[in-house]
Amino acid sequence: MYRRKKEHKRGINYSLMLVGDSGTGKTTFANNLLESPIFPHRFAMDAPQLAFNPRVQIAKPTMVVSYNSKNGIPSHMAQFDASREHFEPGITITSTSVEIATGAEQPPSRSSMSSEASSSAQSNSHSQDKISFNLVKTHGLGENLDNTMCFDEITAFLEQQFDQVLAEETRVKRNPRFEDTRVHVTLYFIPPTGHGLREMDVEMIKRLSRYTNVLPIISRADSFTPEELIKFKRQIMDDVERFHVPVYKFEVDPEEDDIETIEENQALAMMQPFAIMCSDEKNENGEYVRLYPWGEMRVDDDSISDLRVLKNVLFGSHFQEFKDTTQNFLYENYRAEKLSSVSEWDMDKEKGESSKRDSAAPSLSNFASLITTGQFKSTNSLAMPPQSETPTTPDSKEISQGVSDSPALRQMSQSIRRGNEEIIQNIKNSPRTSTPGSPDKSKLRNISETVPYVLKHERIIAKQQKLEELEAQSAKELQKRIQDLEKRAAELKLREKLLRQQHLNSSNTSLNSRQSAQQSMAPQSKLKKEESVTDLASIVSGKA
Amino acid sequence: MSSETTLVGVSNLPNQRYKIVSNSGGTFTLMVCGESGLGKTTFINTLFQTTLKHADPQQRRHQPIKRTVEIDVLRAVLEEKNFSLRVNVIDTPGFGDNVNNNKSWQTIVDFIDEQHDSYMRQEQQPHRDVKFDLRVHAVLYFIRPTGHGLKPLDIETMKRISSRANLIPVIAKSDTLTAKELQAFKLRIRQVIEAQEIRIFTPPLDESETPDPAVMEHARQLIESMPFAIIGSETKFDNGQGSVVPARKYPWGLVEVENDAHCDFRKLRSLLLRTNLLDLVLSTEELHYEAYRRLRLEGSGASEDPSLPTRAPARKLSHNPQFKEEENALKKYFTDQVKAEEQRFRQWEQNIVNERIRLNGDLEEVQAKVKTMEEQVRSLQLRKH
């Protein structure tokens, strides 16, 4: 209860990721979920903006957090250009933060929000809360000829979020405003094939489930008749069994859960995978519908779509459950794996240094308590000012500096500095003083100080490599486009010459016609020039 | 009376032709191509109004998850009013199913080329009563109804097919797109097709040849509604007006397959069978086969365009990149194995040499011992004496 209060003060943090083939309705689902047209559709960036839901506010606009593509440009916002459509779009991951008011102060608009409000009221008694909801979307998956790159990019993104938390957790001085960006739930959109899972689906879910809870959902379920849908759901669950796909399962614990929860979970387990249909259009009653020539379909009709159930699961019944599994199970596994590898690395590095271990060091006891009591405490202490650590802070800082001053690291950091001056700014302060580490310090304390550093380093190196790659790619692309433009310019010049010759010929016959011709020619060439300029500008902006 | 005598009977030629054609029947080869789960099988069954092909999920269950593109030929004879049409339906299961779909069009393209090649070879024989003709008259390319546009895989595949056969793009499962979405989607596809110079099949619009304005109008309509948005269904429902039609029954309405307001199925059927079947066959013969033949006989190397069939379809399977990879892997395995064996032999040899050296050493030792013994014996004997 105490923790909950604490968390509420800071606002509840919740992160959802949408992964799936392009064209399976991720954007529409996101808009439906928030009941606001926040996300523009592909190729329809300047669509008219409809009214927003008053409960939803954009805290941070959509930004690209990670991308990779052959031409080095994030392509999710690209305008439709028929002549460039055969280029592979690569993959872009974007993140949008919104704040959702869950309070009951105003009458809930309708169906879905009411279910959300009621369930959140049931799960926590504080009503005037804001959920800071982070929505991560992937663009371009399944559109490339070779989608391996997309897989790597998404996995790397998720791992990076874990790394950030790990780095923060093990830091001596913690950032009170640290934002946990771990993805709690991932919705994987299965394209409505009617044939079970494809290789890509299986592979992707397997990769995702190492870092988040994966809920497979059937999107665009309006292409199935009720009988077909039942069959398709069964096939998918068969495939899940057959290929051992680790999706999130609604499990029951007969000893701990009450009857209500057990029944609910069993019902949900029967329902999986959820079949949803979404829409951007509203009818006169303000309901989201799909208008077909053969009828009108309401997206939140429980008899045909599981959309409301899904919303309820995401924001209500399993809200905390998803967060807990991420923290207690997935993150914990990752952390154990990572720390054991890092500490080995650390041990090698620390060879020759003092072996005296002071087990009574305050930071060690803190660390030990973290380990024994589980991770909730640690998130808690993330929020608290680092009271227990203050006594050791000054000298531990020196230690961290001392540790980081080993020749190997310095070499590494220098190579980075040469490569990328901007990134190095973050860690520049550390290798300045060169006080050797005090002889009495625990190994655990070493971990707590070096882990963030090591992780950061790894990340920076990886990032730098990627940036370099992307830069090279975009440079290549730029070169190509420049060549294209030059070619076009040459063509234009040629045409101009031809036209001029024609004018000269015609001027012999009549002076009037020549003048008019020249007038007509001038705007044309001007127009072409402008076009090329904007093209270049778009490249530059895309690169930036 | 007098007019009949003046006729020689030449005008009866079309009738003669009619008789011959109706006796011998016709052949039509249709290829369906597209990612799995877009309703290709259902469409074929809807088109011919019989269950030509069974959607068999049981078979699929036993396959591994990583799939290669296969070619699946199905032959059938359709009879209607004493006219029989031999239909070959070619399916391409497994296309676009994998993580890496690069080059997955190769199998399809090779198949089309191979048919042209085999026909050409049969033609070149001294006795050329061509018996085996599986040249593809029309390729239906199924586009996933994403509502966005064409994927690079679609574009690359369509480009390659369109230079070899009559390509007809269709939007599959179009009952997931509302009228507005469908319109925008169609427009984008048309733009891409135009910009990427994909040559799709269009019914001939030559006014001099077809003076009938109704035919012209029909053809124009067909062209306007490309790419066709289609729906397939094998089950029939009562449409509320007394007739039982193939349709899909949703809780929110009944989608009739043969209703022009719902989808373009009728238009596509008209293009494929009713009005333009002969156009499809003829253009395959005259355009695509001729182009292939010319390129093959002129020899390769002249054209740089990768989409054109410049090389002969390889008789081996090794040019398929997947097979090549496998081959390489096998080769590597083989050389590794050989190396390991050699290593083992060398070790063995070394051991033998060592053993020999050791034995030689032993021998020498023994000999030395014997010598010293002899020496001792001699000295003893000397002392004795």
SSE order and pairing:
The complex is a heterodimer of chains A (544) and B (385).
Chain A: H1 2-10, E1 12-20, H2 26-34, E2 56-68, E3 91-101, H3 111-123, E4 130-139, H4 148-169, E5 185-190, H5 199-208, E6 213-218, H6 226-242, H7 259-271, E7 274-275, E8 281-282, E9 288-292, E10 295-298, H8 307-317, H9 319-350, H10 362-373, H11 376-383, H12 393-403, H13 407-419, H14 421-424, H15 443-509, H16 511-543
Parallel strand pairs in A: 1-4, 1-5, 5-6, 6-7
Antiparallel strand pairs in A: 2-3, 3-4, 8-9, 9-10
Chain B: H1 2-6, H2 13-24, E1 26-33, H3 40-48, H4 57-61, E2 72-80, E3 83-91, H5 106-124, E4 138-143, H6 152-162, E5 167-171, H7 179-195, H8 213-224, E6 228-229, E7 236-238, E8 244-250, E9 253-256, H9 265-274, H10 277-298, H11 321-384
Parallel strand pairs in B: 1-3, 1-4, 4-5, 5-6
Antiparallel strand pairs in B: 2-3, 7-8, 8-9
Note down, in words, how this protein is organized.
The complex is a heterodimer of chains A (544) and B (385). Among the domains of chain A are: 23-182, no CATH class; 358-488, no CATH class. The longest helix of chain A is centred in the last third of the chain and has 67 residues, at 443-509. By secondary structure, chain A is an alpha/beta fold. Mean pLDDT of chain A is 68; it is low at 104-127, 352-406, 422-441 and 522-534. Chain A has helices at 2-10, 26-34, 111-123, 148-169, 199-208, 226-242, 259-271, 307-317, 319-350, 362-373, 376-383, 393-403, 407-419, 421-424, 443-509, 511-543, and strands at residues 12-20, 56-68, 91-101, 130-139, 185-190, 213-218, 274-275, 281-282, 288-292, 295-298. Chain B has 385 residues and is an alpha/beta fold. Chain B starts with a helix and ends with a helix. Chain B is built from eleven helices and nine strands. In chain B, a hairpin with a 5-residue loop joins strand 7 (236-238) and strand 8. Chain B has two domains: 2-315, Rossmann fold (3-Layer(aba) Sandwich), CATH 3.40.50.300; 318-385. Chains A and B meet through helix 5, helix 6, strand 9 and strand 10 of A and helix 4, helix 6, helix 7, strand 8 and strand 9 of B.
